[in-house]
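Recap from last week: sequence in, structure out.
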Amino acid sequence: MILAASVDIPILSDIVIILGLSIFVILLFRKLKVPPIIGFLITGIIAGPYGFQLIEATEGVKVFAEIGVILLLFIIGIEFSIKSLISIKRAVFIGGTVQVVGTILLVMLIAMNTGFDLSAAIFLGFLFSLSSTAIVLKIIQDKGETSTPHGKTILAILIFQDIIVVPMMLFTPLLAGESQNIWMEILMMILKAALLIAFVLVSARYIVPWLFYQIAKTRSKELFILVIVLICFSIAWLSSALGLSLALGAFLAGLIVSESEYSHQAASNILPFHELFTSFFFVSIGMLLDIFFVADHFLVILGLMAATFIGKSLIATVAGAFLGYPGRTSYRIGLSIFQVGEFAFILSTVGITYAVISDLTYQYFLSVSLFTMGITPFMMSKAGKIADKLATSRLASKIGSRTQKMFFSFPDTPAEVQDSPEDELDKHIVIVGFGLNGQNVAKAAKSAGIPYVICEMNPDTIKKYKALGEPIHYGDAIQHEVLKGLGVYKAKVVVIAISDPLATKRIVTQIRSISNTIHIIVRTRFITETEENLRLGADEVIPEEFETSVEIFTRVLNQYFIPQKKIKEFVRNVRADNYEMLRGVIKRNPMQKLTEEFPNLTTACYEIEMDNSDITDKPIAETNIRHKFGVTVIGLKRNGELTTQIGPETTPKKGDTIFVFGKPEDLEQFYDKISI
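Predicted structure tokens:
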């Protein structure tokens, strides 16, 4: 025991230094509102060999960093699933190819005109074509943008980059003249990849579900965690043994787990390890930066960084346009994957080994990479606003429109359907976004015979539902002309059901610039987004977060056999309290002020489904509905004709649609009397 106590473990002291310094730096950066990722990079610079040289076991830190990348891609795979990967296959292969090949060609052109030979120029193109999966996906996940059009496309392009890095590694010896049979090696790599993917599909379908079921029966948390870690590292190891990348194997391992019903538990168990080891990855990246080299060549590095930012952003934007996305979405893609990523560091070591690039070139590459990674969180936080400004500028709008039509266009975009039948729509519904919520609104409208028109940006969704006869059009609803093309100025209701909160607010503002009377209903993810949307002009905001909680406690009360009437009253009170609290600071329009004068009153319309001697076949003056039920009749619709001239002689009948005004509880009691 005495001997054991005296053993020196360098990596242990390094872990203490890294974690302690990270806490101090991140606390400081938190107050300055700087992203934690930058804090980890700064920690690496301070503690690294070019800083205060606080770290001794640098190789051990690099091992931890590699584990961090493996766990990161494992978590991404779990949250994604094979089905969702297949759904974006077009974005993976088309968008990824445009971005990678375009970047390689641009870098080659610049490098060969600045003195590099062909081999070095191609290899530099390889390096600069790769972006940071670790940083970009973490930011997208933290912002909740993985389901947005730009989020899905960014993920697709990054997946393609992670796959293509393997052929790049195999191609590097050929650039150096070291490989004699590169095509045979590429063929073998394809065969190995096919074998691994086949194994993944079989495991996801048969092996892993059975294994998880057996483990779950033991009710052992420890055993469950061990199996999760084993699956992650064994597939990553198998991928590496086949000559593919560890990261690709980890991602495929996540896809295997994602297909089982135990995926959420697996993700929650592995998440703490993922967060810890990912921090080591960013620290290890920071340790690579030679601050003395940066100081000596600062202006050159700054120029290269600017060139990298502009060049990669433009090409990624073109990739977005090539996939059919409008300017705003394409710009956000470009402003997110402009940096040089972590897999470029791994690839660069291969280039150094085969002397494809010099040590001086490597240092320039390293500095530019770290600087672009460092500014990524700041750029992505502003990407939405920058993209909006670019999309609304005349020059960018013209360029984006021409580029988009060159690569991918629809003959029926809203701005071009002025002579179509949809142009004759009146008092229709405009549905912005055709995900699950938008589809349900369309189904309800179709069932009720209400005309509607759909605005969507996903080209695949448009093709699919256009073939099914839906009135769906391609366009970005932020743009004034697109909204006019959808007939917003004549619409009665607009439903905004997209996953981009910033775009939602811009659409609300744009609609209000066209019409002050149209009723705007917004779906948001979080209740914190409600106030701003109401302030901008939305009439109703439905936060999924809040409505989900209402649905949960409703089902809980059902389990305790609470009467339905009491449950409905409780739900009504909770909704009223929460929504009124949110609306309290919002300026109201005249109609809303009128409602405020009559608190707890609302309107409703019901079909009279059965005769009732207290309501039907007698004039209102005789039935005295207001006295008996506490509601006021304000309208009546019969045989498709609506009348609001309600007098003492008005006589409701079975089959009429009656419009009433009163307290919710009185309205409910009234409906009970006329419904079957």
